[in-house]
Amino acid sequence: xxxxxxxxxxxxxxxxxxxxxxxxxxxxxxxxxxxxxxxxxxxxxxxxxxxxxxxxxxxxxxxxxxxxxxxxxxxxxxxxxxxxxxxxxxxxxxxxxxxxxxxxxxxxxxxxxxxxxxxxxxxxxxxxxxxxxxxxxxxxxxxxxxxxxxxxxxxxxxxxxxxxxxxxxxxxxxxxxxxxxxxxxxxxxxxxxxxxxxxxxxxxxxxxxxxxxxxxxxxxxxxxxxxxxxxxxxxxxxxxxxxxxxxxxxxxxxxxxxxxxxxxxxxxxxxxxxxxxxxxxxxxxxxxxxxxxxxxxxxxxxxxxxxxxxxxxxxxxxxxxxxxxxxxxxxxxxxxxxxxxxxxxxxxxxxxxxxxxxxxxxxxxxxxxxxxxxxxxxxxxxxxxxxxxxxxxxxxxxxxxxxxxxxxxxxxxxxxxxxxxxxxxxxxxxxxxxxxxxxxxxxxxxxxxxxxxxxxxxxxxxxxxxxxxxxxxxxxxxxxxxxxxxxxxxxxxxxxx
Length: 497
Ligand SMILES: [Ca+2]
Ligand SMILES: [Ca+2]
Description:
Blueprint: H1 3-10, H2 15-19, E1 60-64, E2 68-79, E3 87-93, E4 102-104, E5 107-109, E6 111-115, E7 118-119, E8 122-123, E9 127-133, E10 136-141, E11 148-150, E12 155-163, E13 180-188, E14 194-197, E15 201-204, E16 226-232, H3 237-240, H4 242-252, E17 256-260, H5 266-274, E18 282-286, E19 289-293, E20 297-299, E21 316-322, E22 330-336, H6 346-366, E23 380-385, H7 393-400, E24 416-417, E25 444-448, E26 453-460, H8 468-474, H9 480-484, E27 490-496
Parallel strand pairs: 16-17, 22-23
Antiparallel strand pairs: 1-2, 2-12, 3-6, 3-13, 4-5, 6-9, 7-8, 9-10, 11-12, 13-14, 13-15, 16-27, 17-19, 18-19, 20-21, 21-22, 23-25, 24-25, 26-27
Helix pairs in contact: 6-7
Bound molecules: calcium ion (CA) (2 copies).
């Protein structure tokens, strides 16, 4: 019998014993909910919302370890929590005392974490915290709280985390440092009026056994595989910030690079890569994207490339055949879809249109209608910055195909999402910029044809998430990946089936 089952049977008497059985690091912020399977909801059902509310709260789950408090909650509709028509706020009464903090919704809320915060009576965008002491209040950015919410695309179910121990600005009290808290979620409409709420729930911050989890190795796996790195280098960073990129690229040692946000001719990119990674680099560059390899890289042309749909804003893709010295060649599509927006809006529709066009180019490749012709069963990889901040439709177009586009893999199946975790193993976010209102997100993907290749190993390199000893051992600095770009490199080692 597992721990959660014991807790369920034993009830509240054994609660303290059960929570002390928690260990560090079981929760992974990746938008998947398998890690919540053994956790009982603190809220099993929420009252019906007011009519017209876009939010219908359902269940709520809470857990914690030494570093974070974790929440999972249902909102009843596919919504981008950071770009809501209103706002969703978690009101935390940290001392379970209604006379301290902000008197609101039956609580004395000492800390509020808001998705789409309200400012001057209007919903804004992004996420962040606010400490309340009486009527005094101060904002605390999501970066300081190491907060994140995944999936990044719109879903009716989200998992999020907020760091413990942050020294609160107004009184120096440390966040989530007491024995527990009371809380409830409240949704607000576009006029900042409450329109839905969960019941008040309690969570005890029982003892946690600190566990040091080993970082995911950066070294290449054995037997050797093809290492592909998808990297949005932020405004020509590879050329403009060469020292930091040199350290990162030497450690990653890629065979194939799929680069985005790089407006430079192929020979300039080849030269920039040869500085940290000596040798001749072959580069195919187009539309601010590039595919680079020490192996031969041949651009692939398709007729579909010229059929740009009206909704597309910019079609940023480079499509090439990379020829390793041994084994099969590999079709690589490096893409960069339109950024920003929310589910169903103009930018979201642009992403769908761009994805449909690029997927139809890949269909021509599979149908033998490209130049050069590609042999049946050739490995296919789609990588890059998908910017999935609205719906997940553009991701599904590539991964699952459709009736008109057909299946994206040779055997009539879907592509597989490599979905690697950050080296620290606690999240699969690939983007972070603490100066922005938006919390970290998973924007960068590598999809592959699993009929032809398998994933041997993979990780997202976020140097901020590594121990000093690990950084020293591999020759990286703590702020390297954040200084290089707002995106992290996504690294996959692909092997033949
Ligand atoms: Ca998870
Ligand atoms: Ca209070």
